[in-house]
Amino acid sequence: MKVAIIGGGPAGLYAAILLKKQRPSADITVYERNRADDTFGFGVVFSDATLDNFEKHDLPSYRRITQEFAYWDDIAVHFRGTVHRVGGNGFCGCSRQKLLLILQERARELGVALQFEVDIDDESRFADADLVLLADGINSRFREKYVDHFQPEVDVRANKFAWMGSTRPLDAFTFIFQETEWGPFIAHAYQYEAGHSTWIFETDPQTFERAGLTGLNEQESAARMADIFGWFLDCHKLLTNRSMWRNFPMIRSKRWVKDNMVLLGDAKASAHFSIGSGTKLAMEDAIALAEAMQNAPGIKAALEVYEHGRREEVEKTQHAADVSLVWFEHVDRFWDFDPVQFAFGVMTRSKAITYDNLKLRAPDFVAEVEKSFARHVRNGGFDVDTSKPIVPLFQPFRLREMEIANRAVMSPMCMYSAKEGVPTDFHLVHYGSRAIGGAGLIFTEMTCVSRDARITPGCTGLWNDEQEAAWRRIVDFVHGNSAAKICLQLGHAGRKGATKLMWDGMDRPLDEGGWDVVSASPLPYFPDSQVPRELDRASMNVVRDSFVAAAERGQRCGFDMLELHCAHGYLLASFISPLTNTRTDEYGGSLENRLRFPLEVFEALRAVWPSHKPMSVRISATDWAEGGIDGNDAVAIARAFAEAGVDLVDVSTGQTVRDAQPVYGRMFQTPFSDQVRNEARVATMCVGNITTADQANTILAAGRADLVALGRPHLVDPFFTMKAAAWYGANDAFCPPQYLPGKDQIFRNSVRDRQDLEELRIKAKPKTRAELKAEATKPLAAE
């Protein structure tokens, strides 16, 4: 077997090592354009879990690597004159040059041929090779040569960064957030060997320009950074090595394999340096490829196994990197945060670390976070304990004169179970049980303002006396048997109306019994959907007045809060999105014009809704489609509604057009809530694949939302909130007297269950290499 590897970085060298171990007789050659000891940057960083992987796959190189590593447990966050240290992280740093030399030496030991200063631009010279690995880095010429095949997507990010080094010793992975006269600068720094540390400097393009960095050479740039961070560098020099400022390219390739050629490492996909995963991904690519080659019946099958089996893990890492880099790109959003909350945001930015696992590894730090959050609540007028506070999820919140006992919210979820718009006993049990279950606030499903405003024949409404009486019965039960507040969500289906029940075909048009539908423009949702009638001014008046009439009925029912549905492609959302609004009158064109009618409806509602009761608006913060609403538009939309008197923005996304391409994942819509809250400066509620109280605490403590809405968890567990209260010891959680014995029992049991789980996790967690090294070097106690 003959293997040619183009690129002598970590991906290419480690692949050569593993493949040669499998096939000692194979002819494997690595071709590198640079000299053997040439390298960009200074250090690389790995987690303990990554080193475990290396240990499993090649013990000799693992041992040599770990002999050279600097180990640390702490992450230190420097911000506005404070420093917060968070332990238990398990990271290791190593010289990039030494890593390459170790891998080169190991490859030679195994019989791999290494050729340096050989520039390969034509793979035809390897026509006799069975396998060609394209590991030629982030600027891969082969990825570009076959761009139509590999179909890479390159997203060049806005922030500028430069990679430098220093002689400054560090005992933690260090983030420094530095305010300057030009704007914020960020340093990501870690020690990789005695007397040497890596420093990556980052800033936004506007600050970069104002600081006069454009056109400076390496030495001049280093001098400017030394001036800015000199207080921390403590007279230590900054070192350069091709340390020019540049923009980070996020790369994703649709295909990784062409014939017998395969992309590895940064050539196929990149991950932002803020999560330190570039070299990790490259070497783990090599592991995945070697495992595929070991187990598959032939090279073609192995490459297929590699591509399909490896892609999910790479995309998960890239997603975490994406979320992390966006946090750093918009660090100015959080600049006025309390420093401990800011540090918590740094630690949890990529969603990989959450409230509970951070509390397990750094309990003192999380205790500070809890106290900071409680102080903020106390400053808002609540008499809460700030010395031994309860977790954020169970801190109270106020909107106008409505106070809610906790920040767990049951999402608005259509049940499709009404009879001619009338809520039934199903709805009484549905809403009543979730209210008794402890949620601070529950939302009704989208309640339609007229018969022809319904999504389906099973949707609830509020346009007649029978519906009003049924809703009043539900509201009275909630108020009489729980501490929950209840919000009425009003909406109009627009072009998504006259469709089947969800379980019969979501958004599919009715086969019979339908009604005429309307929208901002005459664009059907599906090609075979009913073509909606474009609303004229007279029809807009009718729609507005039907909203007002429903709101007046809602007030008579006793609802505590009112929400206007302007999301998910329904009628008002169809005005807001340019994908569904092609009007040429004063209600189309610019965002200001597209918002005109939704704001008119909101202002009409605000005028009749009691001034002491809050109102919210649900928006789609992105259409997940080219040319549609994006996060920046969402901020403008939120500001416009805030000026009109909205108290809370319910931040959802998508469902506007059928060809949308949402990026799902845990808490996938939370970044949009974060952006709206901290740029528009309005209270937000986040929603979207939030499944645990731990996630809710993480979101709230990091300042990404003020309320957390959970949908599916509440569907299967009406007592989700009560169970969470027991788990976190929120003893003041309301419980009806009929259920108090059950509350007493679960609160007692949860104390023991939580202690047992934490003990198990602590025992199961292996010691970090930093801890093991510290124990190994500790002097023996005197006898």
TrEMBL record:
Outline the extent of the NADH:flavin oxidoreductase/NADH oxidase N-terminal domain. 393-725
Residue span(s) of domain FAD-binding: 2-316
Q: Name one GO molecular function term.
A: FAD binding
Top-level taxonomic group: Bacteria
Q: Does the entry feature the keyword Oxidoreductase, yes or no?
A: yes
| CDD domains assigned | OYE_YqiM_FMN
InterPro entries found in the cross-reference section: Aldolase_TIM, FAD-bd, FAD/NAD-bd_sf, OxRdtase_FMN_N, YqjM-like
Question: Which Pfam families does this entry report, sorted A to Z?
Answer: FAD_binding_3, Oxidored_FMN
Q: What keywords are assigned to this protein?
A: Monooxygenase, Oxidoreductase
UniProt xrefs under PANTHER family? BLR3436 PROTEIN, NADPH DEHYDROGENASE C23G7.10C-RELATED
Q: What is this protein called?
A: Anthraniloyl-CoA monooxygenase
What does the organism's lineage look like at the top? Bacteria, Pseudomonadati, Pseudomonadota, Alphaproteobacteria, Hyphomicrobiales
